[in-house]
Design goal:
Length: about 600
């Protein structure tokens, strides 16, 4: 077998070493061509790995179902393997690198038997740009290849840009037996290496995404003086044509894709406001020569949550996913060979196969019982960024976009108000560090449990959480003109458990206040937790929401907050010795203001 599939000796040597372990039938370089992609799709159709959907209604779209035990990220099986345990920190799972390589080698051994090894050279960010980092993923899965072709920039030009350098992230993936007892997602930041075995679900196996662009990249960012964050990037254009960009970090399945593609409410549309999506999940941030913070989206597509996506909530995402898309674990509507998911529309399909591959009986569907869903709650679409109707014309700009505001947010029924502004960069870092959110179906485990999820990065920081917060503080000192930092919560509920705030496009009303604060054109109310809008400064025109409802959404319940402070202190203790002392000072100040 020819292992010299590239002209880079480091790449070839590594492929040879991995091939020796996994024993593929062949080695195939993915060149990024449409011909090769089409041949692989044909093969996946023949094997049943993909189902071709209605070419008229959903051109070039496919359906894929993963194993029933393999539908989300597995945080308890995700490891950061640094030589010293303390460098991975208390929040991450840790394994000693040598021990981990040895353990996983046994699982990888012979795992490609009878299958070829696909070699995927990919770039995170525009090939050749200052932000760009290169990776090579080895996989036995055509599904992974086809997803990577959408989600990243793949092709021979990546190998040309890499040249004869050894500076690339080595990713090895094997579906093996998709055995959850032996599933491991392991990161070796000191070796630029990722090993993923026994899964075939997106976040565990599209190694450019969470594994590289967040876990490994956050580690590199700390070393090299930049940041890798779980953030959307959104541009808001005013009637004069001036565009301000914001980033927002919300935990998994908490609204990044939706905010990134929002359509302005009528009141703003009429005036000429427009919105532009730069990214929906990951941002890489660097300090520009002009002293501002600049962001790029290192990805090339969207791996978006399907349920809840519809013509009203997120028409842009829906249109993006109407062509050239791979759907994973959604329902298959046999009437017209299309797809369906909960929240797409009210027409429950009567002739339908559910995400597990079984006939679905709509009469047994119970909104409150997730086990009766036709689509898995974490079913996803993999769609090309360039198919997005509101894609920013800066999407491929190697310089990225300058950031005016950073927005943190979570899913919280109580406690966190609709919006507040931090008092300073340092206070903003504190606000990010104390983020909490109800867990979602994006990760295996319980759903709806409040947990601390600092900067929406709890599952994605590739080193110690305390060091990560220190890096945020240090970055603030490097930015002459830092973005202002805010916190939002779209998910407060009333006594019946219904969301009070309309959300989705109407979130723009809150973003407008945020931008006005950044421009210095609106006053604020000083509260114990930070600056809040005067209720009259959030435009409610056209909404079925009273000013009293809004006051309720902005209310800071001191008792709840003081209770929360205890939880924060507990969490800081859990993070351990490396929590920056200024964050403890911020916590003490907050407690003092709340008790006054
Ligand atoms: P990841 O891809 O997992 O990182 O998630 P994400 O943050 O991009 O989440 P996404 O925008 O896909 O939203 C997840 C779920 O939250 C979907 O079912 C949405 O319909 C719902 N959602 C998003 N925005 C809002 C909002 O403003 N209000 C309410 N009530 N629900 C929302
Ligand atoms: C998330 O879980 O935050 C996602 C989906 O964006 S995954 O790629 O599976 O991580
Ligand atoms: Mn995400």
């Amino acid at each position: 077998m020819n292992t010299n599939v590239t002209s880079n000796k480091y790449v070839n040597a590594w492929i040879a070493e991995m091939a020796e372990m996994v024993k593929p039938s062949d080695i195939i370089l993915i060149d990024g061509s449409e011909e090769q992609a089409e041949a692989l799709r044909k093969q996946a159709l023949a094997s049943g790995e993909l189902i071709k959907l209605n070419e008229e209604k959903l051109p070039n779209c496919y359906l894929h179902r993963t194993a029933v035990n393999d539908v989300a990220r597995v945080e308890n099986r995700t490891f950061i393997c640094t030589r010293k345990k303390e460098d991975a920190g208390n929040i991450n799972n840790w394994m000693e690198p040598k021990e981990c390589y040895a353990k996983l080698s046994k699982l990888f051994a012979g795992s490609y038997k009878g299958k070829p090894m696909y070699v995927i050279p990919y770039s995170m960010s525009v090939v050749g740009s200052d932000f760009a980092k290169y990776g090579i993923e080895l996989t036995d899965s055509i599904y992974v290849v086809l997803n990577m072709l959408i989600m990243t920039r793949v092709g021979k030009n990546v190998l040309e840009a890499l040249g004869d350098s050894d500076n690339f992230i080595k990713g090895l993936h094997a579906c093996a037996n998709v055995d959850e007892e032996n599933r491991y997602i392991c990161h070796f930041p000191e070796d630029n290496t990722i090993w993923s075995v026994n899964s075939a679900y997106g976040g565990n196996v599209l190694l450019g995404k969470k594994c590289f662009a967040l876990r490994i990249a956050s580690y590199l960012g700390r070393k090299e003086g930049w940041m890798a964050e779980h953030m959307l990037i959104l541009g808001i254009e005013n009637p004069e044509g001036e565009i301000k960009y914001i980033t927002a970090a919300f935990p998994s399945a908490c609204g990044k894709t939706n905010l990134a593609m929002l359509i302005p409410p009528e009141i703003y549309k009429k005036k000429g406001y427009k919105t532009w999506c730069v990214g929906d999940d990951i941002a890489w941030l660097r300090v520009g020569k002009d002293g501002r913070l600049w962001a790029v989206n290192p990805e090339n597509g969207f791996f978006g949550v399907a349920p809840g996506t519809n013509e009203h909530s997120n028409p842009n995402a829906l249109h993006t996913a109407m062509r050239d898309t791979i759907f994973t674990n959604v329902a298959h509507n046999l009437d017209d060979n299309t797809v369906w998911w909960e929240g797409l529309n009210d027409n429950l399909p009567t002739n339908c196969i559910d995400w597990k591959g079984n006939k679905w009986d709509p009469s047994k569907y119970d909104k409150k019982d997730k086990t009766t869903c036709a689509a898995h709650p974490n079913s996803r679409f993999t769609a090309k960024a360039t198919n997005c109707p509101c894609l920013s014309d800066k999407f491929n700009d190697p310089a990225g976009v300058p950031i005016t505001a950073i927005v943190f947010g979570g899913r919280r029924a109580k406690t966190a108000p609709l919006v507040y502004q931090s008092r300073s960069w340092q206070h903003g870092v504190f606000v990010g560090s104390i983020m909490a959110s109800e867990t979602t179906a994006a990760a295996a485990g319980a759903v709806g449990v409040v947990r601390r999820d600092p900067m929406a990065m709890r599952p994605f920081v590739g080193y110690d959480m305390g060091d990560y917060w220190q890096h945020w503080l240090d970055m603030g000192k490097m930015i002459a003109n830092p973005p202002k930092i805010f916190h939002v919560n779209w998910f407060r509920t009333d006594e019946n458990g219904h969301f009070i705030w309309p959300g989705f496009g109407d979130n723009m009303r809150v973003i407008m206040w945020i931008l006005a604060r950044c421009a210095g054109t609106v006053d604020a109310v000083d509260t114990p937790i930070g600056y809040e809008p005067r209720p009259e400064d959030i435009d409610l025109t056209g909404l079925d929401l009273t000013i009293d409802d809004l006051k309720g959404l902005l209310n800071v319940d001191r008792k709840l907050w003081l209770e929360d402070c205890k939880g924060i202190r507990e969490f800081y203790k859990q993070v351990g010795d490396r929590v920056p002392s200024v964050l403890y000072d911020e916590l003490a100040d907050l407690e003092k203001r709340l008790s006054e």
